[in-house]
User: Fold this.
Amino acid sequence: MKICVLPGDGIGPEITEQALRVLEALRSDGLDFTAETALIGGCAVDATGTPYPEVTSTLAREADAILLGAVGGPQWDNLPREQRPERGLLAIRKELNLFANLRPAILYPELANASTLKPEIVAGLDILIVRELTGDIYFGQPRGIREEGGERVGFNTMVYSESEIRRIGKVAFEAARKRGKKLCSVDKMNVLESTQLWRDVMIELSADYPDVELSHMLVDNAAMQLVRAPKQFDVMVTGNMFGDILSDEASMLTGSIGMLPSASLDANNKGLYEPSHGSAPDIAGKGVANPLATILSAAMMLRYTFNQEGFAARIENAVKKVLAAGYRTGDIYEPGTRRVGTKEMGDAVIAAL
Ligand code: NAD
Assistant:
C-alpha cells in the first residue's frame, strides 16, 4: 500500500501528522504501508513557483492513494489564477481523473448540540453526498473576463457530457444500493439545459437499479430541504458546482466541518482522501485544529482503496469512543467536555484504538 501524503497549507501539516500517527499505530497489528510526502498548494508555489510541481504529480500518479491536508491562505490570494493554491487541487483531481467525490455527513449523538439546527431535526443524520468533480462550470471552456461594449464581462461555461453524467450516476446508484437505497438527484433543469440532460441520463440509468428509489430535486429546493428536514435524504448526487455548495451546507448540519472526511475516487478506486474543510489560516500553527476529519479520511482510504474494512471500522470506532469520553477540540467544545488540542486528540484516538 503506497500512500502519497500532501500536507499542504495552513492547518494541513498539523492534521495530516495526526492521521499518519493513527495509521502508524496500526502497523503493529499488520497494517503495511509506505508513505511519502510532497508539496502542494501555496507551500509548493513558494518553493517551486507552481501549486502542483512535477515531482508531486509523479509521486501522486505512482501511489495507490493520496492523503491530503488542505491548501490555500490569504498570502496567495492575489497571485495570478494559475498559481493559486486551489489550482493544485483542481490539477491533481483532473490529472488522476478523480471524478467522484464522496462526502458523508454523519451526526454523532454526542455532538447533536454542536449543530445550529434543533437536535430533533439532525439527531441520527446520515447522508452521503456524491458530487461530480472533474466537469461542469469549474472546467468548462470558454471562460474568462473580456472587454465588451466598454466594460468587463466575466463568463464561464456549464457543460456535461452524457458519459460524464453516467459514470457519476453509477457511483451514486451503487453507493445508494449499499445504504438506504434512496437516491436524490439534484439539478436545475427548469433553467439549465446541461442539467436537463443530467436528469434525463439519471432516469435512463435508474432502469439498471430497480432496487434504488430515484427522486429529483431542484438545487434551490435541495438547499432549503437540507436545513428544513435533512433526514429525508440518504444519498444525493449532483454536479460539481451544486455539490460544492450543498456538501458544505450538509457538513454544517453536523455542527463541525472539522469532523467530516471525504474521498475522491477514479474508476479503479484509486483515491484522494482529505477533510472537507479548508486550511483554516485563522487557527494554523496554534495546535488547536480538529484532526478528526483527516483521521476519518484515512479510515475511508483504508475502506475504499485498500479494502481494509476491519482497520477502517477500528479507526471510526476509536473516534466514536473518544467523543463519547468527552474529548473535544475548540470547534466542537461545549462546557462540561474536555478541551484538547490537535495532538492530544490524536493521542486519544490512538489510545482508543
Ligand atoms: P476553512 O474550512 O479553512 O475554515 C472555515 C472555518 O472553519 C474557520 O473558522 C476555521 O478555523 C474552521 N475550521 C476549518 N477546519 C477546522 C478544523 N479542522 N478544526 C477546527 N476548526 C476548523 O474555510 P475558509 O476559511 O473559507 O478557507 C480558508 C482557506 O482554505 C482558503 O484559502 C480557501 O481557499 C482554502 N480552502 C481549501 C480547501 C481544500 O484544501 N480542500 C477547501 C476549502 C477552502
About this structure: The two ends are 21 Å apart (CA to CA).
